[in-house]
Amino acid sequence: MEGLFICKDDKYIDQVKGTSILSLLARKDDFEIMLYEFKAERPNSITPGNNADLMEFYYILEGEIIINDDDKSVKMKKGDYFYVNNIKETVSFRTLADTKMLYVTSQPVYSLLYTYTDELRNLLDKSEQKDVYTYNHGNRVQDYSVKISSKLGLSGDINYNIALASLFHDVGKCFIPDEILNKTSSLSDEEFNYIKKHSTYSSEILQGKFVDDIAMIVEQHHERLNGSGYPKGLKGDETRIEAKIIAVADSYDAMTSNRAYRNASTPESAMEELKRHIGTLYDEKIVLALEISLIEEGILAKNN
Ligand SMILES: [Fe+2]
Ligand SMILES: [Fe+2]
């Protein structure tokens, strides 16, 4: 019948598969209707954009998520929905189980998400296969970075940069040989110099795929306030705020994760270590913003 569209058996206009699957089901004028499928335990974030008219609507068809609303975490299940319009801060959520969501937007976003993510999601998948630690680490660093940035009340553009740069900050480790990356004994200077190239590699991979800012931020994630970092030995405000935030989130996650060559530190001793290096390696307000967010989540005790 004219005007009727029946779509059966997983028929869709287009689909992009990566760490999540996004299928474009229908579009008319500016409206797009999509199906978003996520595996369990995946963090995700919706970042403020430049388009105040864009409404994004998510209806949970299957599964369960936890969404962060200011300082509260809200669990949502099948039949629940949320939508965002003109948000000023990044909204983050995490899937608890394999989750399917109907995703409807009032402006076209599919092609944007597609170009941003298709190649990059493949890259993330590749880094997951190569090194599960780096992959999970990227997700956790994104989670911490987004929380720090929202605690600091930073602008929409900065939030957007942080959400993307933090997720991809270590993808350049794909190019570091496994025997160096997974070495359990101490590294020679030469090996360490090799590992140090990963921030430049990450930045080169990302060049031209997002706004160039993202590549620059990623390149700076191992720079330190006093100039002792790498690759350029930048000092103080020569490093972007986004990179300074990722540096703190990255160091905290590295310390609190088990690695082949050492056991994880507790959140308390990792925070002590970060605080010991305030002003030399790390920016004070960023470390304190992370501390507040960990206290609010019950990960750190109050008055630590
Ligand atoms: Fe790194
Ligand atoms: Fe890292």
Helices, strands, pairings?
Elements: E1 14-17, E2 20-28, E3 31-38, E4 43-46, E5 55-62, E6 64-69, E7 72-77, E8 81-85, E9 91-95, E10 99-105, H1 110-130, H2 132-151, H3 156-168, H4 178-181, H5 189-196, H6 198-206, H7 212-219, H8 241-255, H9 267-276, H10 284-296
Antiparallel strand pairs: 1-2, 2-3, 3-10, 4-9, 5-8, 5-10, 6-7, 6-9
Helix pairs in contact: 1-2, 2-3, 2-8, 2-10, 3-7, 3-8, 6-7, 8-9
The structure holds fe (ii) ion (2 copies).
Element string (H = helix, E = strand): EEEEEEEEEEHHHHHHHHHH
The hetero molecules present are: fe (ii) ion
What are the segments in which pLDDT stays under 50 over at least 5 consecutive residues? none
Count the DSSP helices. Answer: 10
Task: List the strand order in the largest sheet.
Answer: 1-2-3-10-5-8
